Amino acid sequence: MEAAVKEAAADDAAEAAIRACVKRFYEKGGADSLLGPIFEKSISELEPHLDIVANFWSHALLGTTRYQGTPFGVHVNLPIEPQHFARWLALFTETAKETMPERLASAAVARAEHMTQCFQSGLFPFKDSQGRPSKAPA
Ligand code: HEM
After folding, report:
1. Nearest CA among 52, 61, 77, 48 for reference residue 10
2. What is the average pLDDT score of the chain?
3. Does any ligand 1 atom lie closer than 6 A to the CB of residue 124?
4. CA distances (Å), 72 to each of 36, 100, 130, in order?
5. What is the position in ligand 1's atom list of the atom closest to the CA of 41?
């Protein structure tokens, strides 16, 4: 097989793995007691949302230009609390390992860990009286 053809086939396989990961993540998230109610309330149409999130991962992992959004801003007005992040990341990590080849899964998990940290610093920049992340100063 020519190098360019091989590369295109590898990209197709990677896109399919990303799609499978996103689909499975939202199946599990929808059934999760902590995340399910947020997804249910805030995602009006699932299929277009899956497309957006798959485009995001394609951009993040494969360098495509299909995603042009700003993920942090989308989360600012969601009813998210600090404890949601640990569950989100645990579920994403598990799903990425199940659905993507090792190299892609570790890159995705590294990016998700980093974004989880950034989102939390942005959404909860203070500490409450018990030292927990908070939206307002103690
Ligand atoms: C507490 C954890 C999280 C919850 C409950 C959550 C929930 C949601 C919800 C409900 C939406 C749809 C919002 C809308 O369309 O108005 C969304 C969008 C999105 N989320 Fe999250 N999210 C979380 C963390 C993360 C993290 C850590 C990432 C990092 C990869 C991420 C990536 C995205 C992306 C890429 C979108 C689409 C953004 C866009 O529309 O441009 N989310 N999330």
Report:
1. 61
2. 95
3. no
4. 20, 24, 26
5. 10
Phi, psi (rounded to 5 degrees) for 23:
-60, -50
Which residues, 6+ apart, have CB-to-CB distance to 40 below 8 Å? 30
Domains of the chain, start order: 3-134 (1.10.490.10)
Q: Is the pLDDT of residue 7 over 90?
A: no
Q: How far is CA 113 from CA 7, 51, 91, 118, in A?
A: 28, 22, 12, 9
Kindly report the protein residue whose alpha carbon is nearest to atom 15 of ligand 1: 43
Residue partners of 81: CB distance under 8 A and separation at least 6:
none
Q: Which residue has the higher pLDDT, 126 or 1?
A: 126
C-beta of 74 in contact with ligand 1 (< 6 A): yes
Q: Is 35 in the pocket of ligand 1 (CB under 6 A)?
A: yes
Going by C-alpha positions, the residue among 9, 53, 6 that lies closest to residue 29 is 53
> Which residue's CA lies nearest to atom 25 of ligand 1?
116
DSSP state of 129: T
User: For residue 1, what pLDDT is reported?
Assistant: 59
